[in-house]
Amino acid sequence: MNQLVGTIQTMTVDRTIETGYVLTFEMNEFLLHHNETNTILEPNQEVDVFIYMDKKGKVVATTKLPHIKMDIYDWAEVKNVIPNLGVFVDIGTTKDILVSKDDLPLFDQVWPQIGDRLFVTLGKDQKGKLLALPASEGVIARELELAPDSLLNTMIEGTVYRTSREGSALITGDFYRGFIHHSERRKEPRLGQQVNGRVIEVKPDGTLNISLRPLKQESMHEDAEAILQHLEANGGVIPFSDKSDPDDIRGTFHISKAAFKRALGKLMKNGKVEQREGKTYLKS
Prior knowledge:
Blueprint: E1 8-17, E2 20-25, E3 28-33, E4 46-53, E5 59-62, E6 74-82, E7 86-90, E8 97-100, E9 117-124, E10 130-134, H1 137-143, E11 155-163, E12 167-172, E13 177-181, E14 194-202, E15 208-211, H2 216-233, E16 237-238, H3 246-253, H4 257-269, E17 273-276, E18 279-282
Parallel strand pairs: 3-5, 13-15
Antiparallel strand pairs: 1-2, 1-4, 2-3, 4-5, 6-7, 6-9, 7-8, 9-10, 11-12, 11-14, 12-13, 14-15, 16-18, 17-18
């Protein structure tokens, strides 16, 4: 029976019991609970059902068929997040399915939140229980469309399907693949998060490079405000200047050294800060 878990089968109604219906398939019996069907069934009637394992480990049936199946990928909304276990997603049945922590980012700060979406298929663990498995890069590649050059410098929306220190990969609604380099984001997006960004390159292979940062002029104002806030929070002095190490700047302000220098130059020009001996001071 366990081999049928995660599949859709046509079964025959054998009899009605107090809790629902008993279905038969290849000499096996399955319970179809009243809560798992919206219609009244009669003996000998055939019905299509999805097979899954309930909380007690019993193999049962439902007429509420999922839109995600074995080897069929689709978007699933996150319904619950359980630390140290994973997240549960809605695949279209009454039972939400676990995406194991083993298939999620190492750091839970970028785990999906309720309402985010993951591109998944169905699989099983060693005990035969259903799991939702995020699509691999190879699967994504088979689904992609080639992005047109006309998208350059336009705003675009997509859902993050992979995230790392190097950058974040996303899929747009038209199934274009986009990549956000770590230098083009202030904060690492969550897996499954929907983001809006600006197309800064349409690559020859039809994929996109995307920035979540505002245009330079807008960004310079925001960066300058962040530097001022950091100065105010640290007694009016910070151990940074336009000669500081780029990695140190990024580790503190999450911006490139070039962006830091632009913002610092703006503050110095406006008479708000000054540099001395490798440090920046807030002017009174």
